[in-house]
Amino acid sequence: MNSLGWRYGQGEGVQVDRAEANRWYAQSAALGNAEGLYNYGVRHVNGDLGRIDPVEACRLWHQAAAKNHACAMGNLCISFMHGNGVPQDYAQARAWALRSANTDEPRAMALMGNFYHQGLGTPVDKIEAMAWYMLSIDRTPDAAPAMRVLMREIGPAGLARAQARASELRKDIRPSTHHD
Questions:
Q1: Mind giving me the DSSP string for 81-113?
Q2: Is residue 79 part of a domain?
Q3: Closest to 150 in 3D by CA, of 139, 98, 140, 161
Q4: What is the pLDDT of residues 91-138, one digit of tens each?
Q5: Dihedrals φ, ψ of 140, to 5°?
Q6: What is the pLDDT of residues 145-170, one digit of tens each?
């Protein structure tokens, strides 16, 4: 059902039909499918259902996150960061980013670096920030600008400590079967 929602939403092999995509995503979500929950949440926040409902999107993403859906966790992080559908809360945002990062989601790893670099929901820790940036950098460019700045700030000794910390963090990462 989720795949049919995707096909109608993207026009893969069929004509784009938002109503049909919404119907299939809703059915997939109603059955508790993690991808369906995630995608139906995206439809709610993007206004693809004729209205924007970030509260419902977050409710659906919580259900998908309970099924270890990495991108749902990442979207909850962003929602908590900006107070979109939930109260703004950097500590909650960081907690969701960590859960997502630990499923091998590179954008969440870059966000973790940002939390530690900027001191959002946690004290500033440049070594921890660099370690997270290092884990993400080969799969997403999101961290590159901040990483260049941070490399100058921590120097070679800090860079070596960050590499060792990245190796430690890597041990906790367990890939999710649910990535977009």
A1: HHTSSS---HHHHHHHHHHHHTTT-HHHHHHHH
A2: no
A3: 161
A4: 999 999 999 999 999 999 999 999 999 999 899 999 999 999 999 998
A5: -155, 140
A6: 999 999 999 999 999 999 999 999 99
Q: State how far Cα 155 lies from the chain centre.
A: 29
pTM of this prediction? 0.86
CB 74 within 8 A of CB 96: yes
The Cα 92–Cα 97 span in angstroms is: 9
Contact of 67 with 34, CB cutoff 8 Å = yes
CB 1 within 8 A of CB 17: no
Pair 113, 44 in one domain: no
C-alpha distances in Å from residue 164, one per residue of 49, 50, 59, 79? 47, 49, 38, 31
Q: Which residues contact 176 (CB under 8 A, 6 or more apart)?
A: 68, 69, 70, 103, 104, 105
Expressed as residue numbers, the domain containing 39 is 1-67
